[in-house]
Amino acid sequence: MHCESCINYAFDEELEEYICMAAMDEDEFVSLLSRDYKDCPYYRNDDEYEVVRKQI
């Protein structure tokens, strides 16, 4: 997974580490960790220029 480029990957000052901030409940989180996903279903690209590049 490419967490570093995901909009849901944010620094938590209390924990002092990066964590996934995607809105999911405990069951969804366990399911995410237990399956072999090719791509994360919660991944959202943090590249704000992605749309512009597609228009060119």
Which key phrases capture this entry?
alpha+beta
Structure notes:
This protein has 56 residues and is of the alpha+beta class. Helices cover 27% and strands 14% of the residues. It has a two-stranded antiparallel sheet. A hairpin with a 4-residue loop joins strand 1 and strand 2. The longest helix has 9 residues. The chain starts with 8 loop residues before the first strand and ends with a helix. The model has no long low-confidence stretch (mean pLDDT 83).
Overall mean pLDDT score? 83
Give the % helix: 25-40%
Shape, per Cα inertia axes: flat
Q: Count up the helices.
A: 2
Lateral strand order in the biggest sheet:
1-2
H/E topology pattern = EEHH
Structural class: alpha+beta
Q: TL;DR of this structure?
A:
This protein has 56 residues and is an alpha+beta fold.
SSE topology sketch:
Layout: E1 9-12, E2 17-20, H1 26-34, H2 50-55
Antiparallel strand pairs: 1-2
